[in-house]
Design goal:
single chain; alpha/beta; Rossmann fold; Trna Endonuclease, Chain: A, domain 1; 5-stranded parallel sheet; 5-stranded mixed sheet; 22 helices
């Protein structure tokens, strides 16, 4: 198992706890939640079930289909024949009877996958699940229930932060995040794919650290050929993935699509009011719940730019797959067979590599802190833009403001060779340092930090950078 050892160990400890356990595993769609449970508890699951995806069913008679599928799961795993349940109360009663009948005083493990899909409108599902656990499950010391869900916002609202009958009932929460670069490399090598790190970073720019997408990579193809097969060939593997992704996770997929498209237009993100203006909608609970869901599912990052008020956060799209799709395969773009292989050095792809590499760095802040030797130092992170009358404007890829009175002004350069600082760029960096020095406390020391592919070429201007880190540093384990 790649990259999930800590989560696996936590599951095993809960399995051996000797008490009733309600475990919640959540994370982005395709992140590997089901694989984690199956790989950890192979042949030890007493009862398993998976909710029916709303994508295929379109909401028509979905409650009846969910109940039928739950009944069929019980029957196929040994429950005696009975009438199909008419409600979730009855369905969970059947589950209780099944578990009692099969109880041998050994640990019983129930695994319910995609639990949020089962909570269809006006179905009474949550009330029934609450009754199942509070009135029966939590009193059985040999019972462990694992529930999974891609709809992280639903999981957080209804299970983790529940203020009703399930308040405080979850005994363990495991949130799965995308793979790091190091884990991506391990995953690909496990499958016999030996890409150089320069290409692994580009694969991360396209599909992120999502095991499901990485699993489509073929060892006999180059990275460019793989991306063409996944995105730009007839019958490409991920043709419908962008639409399916949002429909599977969110209650309002169309609105989510619009928000993500807006956020993809500017790498540093937008304020709440700017997003609402572009949506032409009023602020309120609907928008708040959408933003909250995007953040909890690792699509969007919320941050406060330096110099801004606490009530003026920015929202930045950080999901590489969404950024790639909207830049190259959105619905309004013409389809071109073998586009990636034939346009590797095109201005559009070269430009994309630049801002996509910034996003890679934003997803690897712990590795950056480790290289800087500040893993234990509290710090704030922000992109920073300032308009000035005497220049086109000032934009900094990332600022790290540290509690030890140092500000790292990070420049991110995805380069095909060692990066070279020329005289013009040197002057730009000096000007940026001057402006930052005027902005921050006099106690703060401004350090220019370069994050690039291979390194920095020494010349009369290269000493402008106090710290230099390369791809190898981003691949370091934590």
């Amino acid at each position: 198992m790649i990259g999930r050892q800590q989560e696996k160990q936590e599951l095993l400890e809960r399995y051996e706890s000797g008490r009733a356990e309600l475990v919640v595993v959540h994370g982005r769609y395709r992140i590997g939640k089901t694989f984690l449970a199956n790989a950890t508890f192979e042949n030890r699951i007493t009862f398993r079930h998976a909710g029916i995806s709303p994508v295929e069913e379109n909401g028509n008679g979905l409650l009846r289909k969910q109940l039928d599928q739950f009944y069929f799961s019980l029957r196929s795993q040994g429950m005696s024949e009975a009438k199909k349940p008419k409600s979730w109360m009855e369905a969970f009663f059947y589950l209780e009877m099944f578990l009692q009948k099969t109880d041998s005083n050994e640990r019983q493990l129930v695994f319910i996958d995609e639990l949020p899909w089962m909570d269809t409108p006006r179905s009474g599902f949550l009330t029934a699940f609450e009754g199942f656990w509070n009135n029966w499950g939590c009193h059985r010391k040999n019972l462990m229930v694992i529930v999974c869900g891609s709809a992280s916002a639903w999981i957080l609202d209804n299970l983790i932060n529940n203020h009703g009958g399930l308040y405080g009932r979850v005994t363990c929460e495991i949130r799965l995040h995308p793979f790091t670069l190091q884990e991506c490399e391990m995953f690909l090598k496990e499958r016999g794919i030996d890409f150089p790190r320069y290409d692994i970073v580009q694969s991360y720019m396209a599909v992120g650290g999502i095991p499901y997408y990485l699993d489509y990579m073929k060892r006999n193809l180059s990275l460019a050929q793989n991306l063409d097969e996944m995105f730009f060939s007839q019958g490409a593997k991920l043709t419908d993935e962008f639409s399916r992704l949002f429909t599977s996770i969110f209650d309002k997929p169309a609105l989510m699509h619009r928000i993500v498209r807006i956020l993809s237009l500017r790498n540093r993100g937008f304020t709440r009011s700017e997003i609402l203006d572009k949506l032409e909608m009023k602020d309120g609970e609907t928008f708040s719940s959408c933003i909250k869901a995007l953040i909890s599912s690792d699509f969007v990052l919320k941050y406060i730019p330096f110099g801004s008020k606490a009530n003026e956060p920015h929202y930045k799209l950080i999901d590489p797959f969404c950024m790639f799709w909207l830049h190259f395969r959105d619905e309004n773009m013409p389809f071109t067979e073998n586009y990636w292989t034939e346009n590797l050095d095109s201005p559009k792809i070269v430009s994309w590599r630049g801002f996509a590499f910034e996003n890679v760095c934003w997803n690897h802040i712990p590795q950056i802190k480790r290289k800087l030797g500040i893993s234990g130092v509290s710090a704030d992170y922000s992109a920073w833009t300032r308009k000035a009358d005497d220049e086109e404007g000032l934009q900094i890829d990332m600022l790290i403001s540290r509690k030890d009175h140092v500000v790292n002004m990070c420049e991110m350069k995805y380069w095909g060779d060692d990066f070279t600082v020329n005289q013009d760029y040197y002057r730009i960096l000096l000007r940026r340092k001057e402006i930052l020095a005027e902005t921050f406390s006099r106690k703060a020391s401004i350090h220019c930090t370069l994050i690039t592919t291979f390194g920095l070429r020494k010349n009369p201007y290269s000493d402008i950078f106090t710290d230099v880190m390369t791809l190898n540093d981003l691949f370091e384990p934590l």
